[in-house]
Design goal:
mainly alpha; single chain; 0% strand
Length: 142
């Protein structure tokens, strides 16, 4: 709820010891525990009263389902999850096939470079634009 990790918790403890002193800290911790217990009891009673007043058709109502984030996940995303998993698996298969094809092309190019002159490597080099002779510009033709 508050996303308080171990370092933040240690800082809060040190701050509480400095602010209240080690003598009053156990008493304050007991009071804080009583307040938390009281709030939990109030929330539990409110939940029981809500389910009792809504009637038997809402017996399985969970108050956490009223949170919009969990409502969306429960009612919308659960239906879409199998489709997303299928798409992810297809994408991973396609990427592995693409990697294999890329490795095949790379090895073919490397083997073509090792061929004797006049072979496919020279043909590929001649086909590149930098190896073709440029035709001179004819200003009269335009």
């Amino acid at each position: 709820m508050f996303d308080v990790g171990a370092p933040e918790f240690l800082v809060l403890i040190v701050f509480a010891i400095i602010l209240f002193g080690p003598e009053k800290l156990p008493e304050l911790a007991r009071k804080a525990a009583r307040v938390i217990n009281y709030v939990r009891n109030i929330a539990g009673n409110a939940q029981q009263q809500l389910t009792k007043e809504l009637g038997p058709e809402f017996e399985n109502l969970d108050v956490r389902d009223l949170n919009p984030r969990t409502f969306i996940q429960k009612h919308l995303l659960d239906d879409v999850e199998p489709i997303v998993a299928d798409v992810k698996s297809e994408l991973s298969e396609a990427s592995s096939i693409g990697r294999a094809a890329s490795e095949d092309v790379t090895s073919a190019i490397e083997s073509a470079k090792d061929v004797t002159p006049g072979g496919p490597a020279d043909v590929m080099a001649a086909a590149t634009p930098s190896a073709r002779p440029m035709t001179p510009f004819d200003s009269d033709a335009t």
